[in-house]
Amino acid sequence: MKKTIRDYSLYDKKVLMRVDFNVPIKNGEILDDNRILQSLKTIEYAVDKGAKVILFSHLGRVKTEEDKQKNTLKPIADRLSILLKKEVLFIPETRGSLLETSIQGMQKGDVLLVENTRFEDIDGKKESNNDQDLGAYWASLGDIYINDAFGTLHRCHASNVGIASHLPNGIGFLVEKELQVFEKVLQKPERPFTVILGGSKVSDKIELIKHLVTVADYLLIGGGMAYTFIKAQGFSIGKSLLDEEHLSFCREMLQQYKDKIILPVDTTNTKALSENPSYRICSIKETKSEEIGADIGPETATLFIEYINKSKTIIWNGPVGAFETKPFDKGTKALAEALTHNQGTTIIGGGDTASAIIGFGYQNKMSHVSTGGGAALCLLEGQELKGIGVIEEA
Ligand code: AMP
Predict the structure, then answer these.
(1) Measuring CA to CA, which residue among 387, 371, 389, 390 is closest to residue 35?
(2) Cα(229) to centroid of ligand 1, in Å?
């Protein structure tokens, strides 16, 4: 068990807290504040205990000076201030005298947000490459380090692994909950245990498939990645997504686990993935050479829902269609709705699947919607998260 924020006396301490405020922003407007909302519990706890709370987060990728303007955390400071109902002091820099004197001037219960940690990436990727001096510098600004950024736990960055290596440390409530959910479900799933896998590429999910096929009872495969499996079955897939390099891997998986891997039986095809597309539904045996498989078909949805209905644990990673373009969200929506009726444990593994579920308005009807795509994927692959490795044992 890892140390948590509860293991420390926070009164009058400078608590450096890594949170995940990497939210979608367009023209300065926050489009989805779920990650900010999810981090409130730990921040409010520290404030209530009389800590001086110094928040670090990344936002997007920062490679040029222009990226800096797009990716400033200022709009997030404003939103956070509204949500916390208290002032959040925003420091528009990641190091230097303003940051240091502002921290020195903090009172108990104050909250300060440091500018986007990835501003440090402009100068030699210091944040993303876990530059030792940067981690040590940030650590010198505080007394205790708390990591509550589940979304970046699979990374070795200066703002997580770097700072943590220099200070007494622990995890926040959000990370604690995410770890507990995945640990419980992977170690002792109530069975039948079904995994729904989708998304675009087989190559991104090789380790995931290899691991999950050994622990789950059923693997329902949809989305762009299903077409490589369908081709491995010997059917034509037209211009659908194909991961040629992994065709033989798919063939081997199908031979070895033919009772566990459940593939689409029909497909929704189009000639172009554009606005208002024309489309037709057909058996997976009937795709024409000019067609793209954009979603599972209704028979597949019915088949997958039969497995969902008889399962006591379901984990879902990757949409089963190109859900951003209507009507190719139908398959993903039909499965999502079936999950809302399931009485067992339903876990959404972050990333695009979480965005789809939130878009459908179903997030409160799932047992857990993870805040981290890559980190959830890592746990599902059975790997240890780099940001957790450095956290002290309780
Ligand atoms: P991933 O990041 O690998 O989980 O992939 C998510 C993306 O896969 C989403 O943007 C979906 O639009 C896309 N996707 C899912 N199914 C398909 C499909 N049949 N054809 C093209 N893209 C798809």
Answers:
(1) 371
(2) 15
* Beta pairing class for 14-18 and 25-26: unpaired
Tokens for 20?
């995940």
155-184 per-position pLDDT tens digit: 999 999 999 999 999 999 999 999 999 999
Distance 226 CA to ligand 1 centre (A): 10
Cis peptide bond N-terminal to 189, omega within 30: no
Average pLDDT, the chain: 96
**pLDDT above 90 for 262:** yes
Task: Establish whether residue 322 lines the binding site of ligand 1, counting it when its CB lies within 6 angstroms of any ligand atom.
Answer: yes
**pTM of the full predicted structure?**
0.89
pLDDT at 276: 86
Domains by residue range for the chain, with CATH: 5-174 (3.40.50.1260), 189-380 (3.40.50.1260)
Report the separation in Å between the CA atom of 294 and the middle of ligand 1, taken as the mean of its atom positions: 9
- How many Å separate Cα 192 from the centre of its chain? 25
SS3 311: coil
- Cis peptide bond N-terminal to 327, omega within 30: yes
Residue 360's pLDDT is: 95
Cβ of 277 closer than 6 Å to ligand 1, yes or no, is no
The H-assigned helical ranges of 165-320 are 173-187, 206-215, 226-232, 247-256, 298-309
Q: What is the largest CA-CA distance in the chain?
A: 70
